[in-house]
Description:
The protein has three domains: 2-129 and 298-314, Rossmann fold; 134-293, 2-Layer Sandwich (Dihydrodipicolinate Reductase, domain 2), CATH 3.30.360.10; 334-398, Alpha-Beta Plaits, CATH 3.30.70.120. The protein is built from 14 helices and 17 strands. The chain has helices spanning 11-22, 24-31, 59-63, 81-90, 100-117, 134-139, 155-166, 171-180, 189-192, 195-209, 228-236, 298-314, 350-357, 380-387, and strands spanning 2-7, 35-41, 55-56, 68-73, 94-97, 121-122, 146-152, 219-220, 240-250, 253-263, 276-283, 287-294, 338-346, 362-363, 370-374, 378-379, 392-398. Strands 7, 8, 9, 10, 11, 12, 13, 14, 15, 16 and 17 form an eleven-stranded mixed sheet that branches. A six-stranded parallel sheet has the order 3-2-1-4-5-6, sandwiched between helices. Helix 1 packs across helix 12 (298-314), helix 2 (24-31) packs parallel to helix 12 and helix 4 packs parallel to helix 5. The longest helix has 18 residues, at 100-117. The model has no long low-confidence stretch (mean pLDDT 97). L-homoserine is lined by residues 129, 154-156, 183-185, 191, 196, 295-296.
Amino acid sequence: MVKIAVLGYxxxxxxxxxxxxxxxxxxxxxAGDEIEVKHVLDLRDFPDDPIxxxxxxxxxxxxxxxxxxxxxxxxxxxxxxxxxxxxALLSGKSVATSNKELVAKHGAELISIAKQQxxxxxxxxxxxxxxxxxxxxQCCLTADEIDEISGILNGTTNYVLSEMTFQGSDxxxxxxxxxxxxxxERNPQADVEGFDAGRKIAILTSLVSGRQVDFEDVYTEGxxxxxSADMKYAxxxxxxxxxxxxxxxxxxxxxxxxxxxxxxxxxxxxSVNGVLNAVYVHGNMLGDTMFFGSGAGKLPTASAVVxxxxxxxxxxxxxxxxxxxxxxxxxxxxxxxxxxxxxRVKEEDQEAACALFxxxxxxxxxxxxxxxxxxxxxxxxxFAHLAESVSLLSRIRID
Length: 399
Ligand code: HSE
């Protein structure tokens, strides 16, 4: 019997308990041993839930319990999760976490502690919710130079953008729904400002490069400025607006960014809607591959966490190698990144803007007093420079 402790009985924590209970036999067969939740750490009590008999309020009960071999951290946030996880690893307990903030910031250090202790620090659920992407990158895509990862990595924003696109819904109203459905972060600013996707693409880039990509170095734009007018132009262009998290190698540089993009029907991420996430990966030998599925929510995320528990139970006394050192990965400057842009300008600025941006095509979405146009390909720096000469109503990169 492998005894585990769960830190946090919120959306994901209760999901972990439910997954383990619902699929108990199958999970035990996969793990090669029975898995039992012995303790659940939470500040709260749950008098009407059978979990109450396992609730502890003091972490030292778990840390000092020699029977606990695996700790599941699903509290979220960096503190106190970092100190709890580090102590667990130092005391010889493997850890499975869904906490992308923790992994993005301290992943490399926690992996190195796990290696010293010959145990494991697993974090499959930290990117893409229930989609297997971390382990495939480490185990299956090891023969390739990965030159691009482009993903829809945040379920909340994809849900919001999809509802705005297909139902014409209002941003605030859809965001509230996403929160009620348990997709959003406690502070949904991390979702809508792109920080959550930024942490996830930082983790994926760290894994493929083997070096630390700091989330703070990822150029990040969220979806808060996307309006219903932008949606009308997207429709007119037969495109859709998606928040893409992208890591791309070009001319020896790795550019990492999160931003809304207009993408057309031939793009692999075009039909990824609602809370679904997808990660497109391009390898220099493999070519294209894509991972697709439930990117957020209680049970999909818990399913990925429990798969880590199974993997940890299979490797209780040996470390599964993860290539991610603490050495910092130098990133390309976003000022040099080349895109085409869709811009909206006032009707009276149409001629000047067309000449400035080298645009040949005017887009009329039927909004009085303004038009849209598509620029030639240029670097971010060139675009920012040109944009100083004309007043833009909005701008979105085109993929
Ligand atoms: N808030 C996150 C999302 C949860 O919406 O994708 C899963 O990481």
